[in-house]
Amino acid sequence: MFGTASLGSKCAPDIARQVLRQAIASGFHQFDTAPFYGAGHAERLLGELGDEGMRVSTKFGSPRPSRLRFMAVRVLRGRRPGDLVPPPALLVSRDGEFDCAAQRRPPAQLSASMAALSKCAQGFLFAHSPPRFPGAAAVSAWSDLARSSGYVLGVSGPRNEDMEAWLEVAPADACFQLHLDTLESLTDPVLDRLARRTVWIHGIFSPPTGAGPTHAADRQKLAHRWAADLAQAAFVVTSTRPEGVARAGAFVRELEG
């Protein structure tokens, strides 16, 4: 599957459109996005090119405050002619509070996402990087919200110490989106339970988040190991250059084949 976190922020929107067209032409039909990806551009760029053959998963919640600050600097200082302007609400961090902790933001945020992605098929709706486990009642409410909107609930980037709680209460068809390095730090009991779950793994071509391997070849070997260990693993890759899309696609087909 193709990730869109950098499209519209690390590359200009016209290049991002070329990247997405190349991804579609290369056989990608699942895309991972969020309202704040690409400094607020990614969902709209996907919506421009979308059709029912593209299955798009999105997110609710806020990025971390540091990410919001980066986005604000990018928008206010680094805009290029033709850049889209992200919604101002995406530049408000509320001191890092997870915006959907009180279940106020998800319906409004999801409505905006669905409008932007109206031409695309729906995939997972991820709670993005919750700073703490929200409790079984909130997870149940979020799952109901996802299903009523045509999505299936997922959780992206949960804290390691919350993984057992999430695995206990998340619906059986929920998806867990985890960084490659995070998998290396989980306990064996958690990994045994994840082996029966849908897991999306990202960070294959990214710098390590902690003590992960730094060389690209070693990270790719690690990805191969997890492809063998997790029966329902899928891999999220990306590129900010059209010419890099084919290489990313070939690697995913190798991993998932």
* Terminal residue distance: 13 Å
Overall average pLDDT: 81
Question: What is the strand content?
Answer: 5-15%
* Major sheet summary line: 8 strands, parallel
Multimeric state of these chains?
single chain
State the helix count.
Answer: 10
Compute the gyration radius: what is it? 17 Å
**Low-pLDDT runs:** 65-104
State the order of secondary-structure elements, H for helix, E for strand.
EHEHEHHEHEHEHHEHEH
**Quantity of strands, as a count:** 8
Shape: globular
The helical percent reads 40-55%
What structural category characterises the helix and strand content?
alpha/beta
Q: Strand order, main sheet: write it out.
A: 1-2-3-4-5-6-7-8
Provide an overview of this structure:
The structure is a single chain. This protein is of the alpha/beta class. It is 42% helix and 14% strand. The chain has an eight-stranded parallel sheet with strand order 1-2-3-4-5-6-7-8. The protein is globular, with a radius of gyration of 17 Å. The model is unreliable at 65-104 (pLDDT under 50).
Write the layout of secondary structure elements.
Blueprint: E1 2-3, H1 13-25, E2 30-32, H2 42-49, E3 55-60, H3 65-77, H4 105-116, E4 121-128, H5 136-148, E5 152-156, H6 163-169, E6 175-179, H7 180-184, H8 188-194, E7 198-202, H9 216-229, E8 233-235, H10 242-256
Helix pairs in contact: 1-10
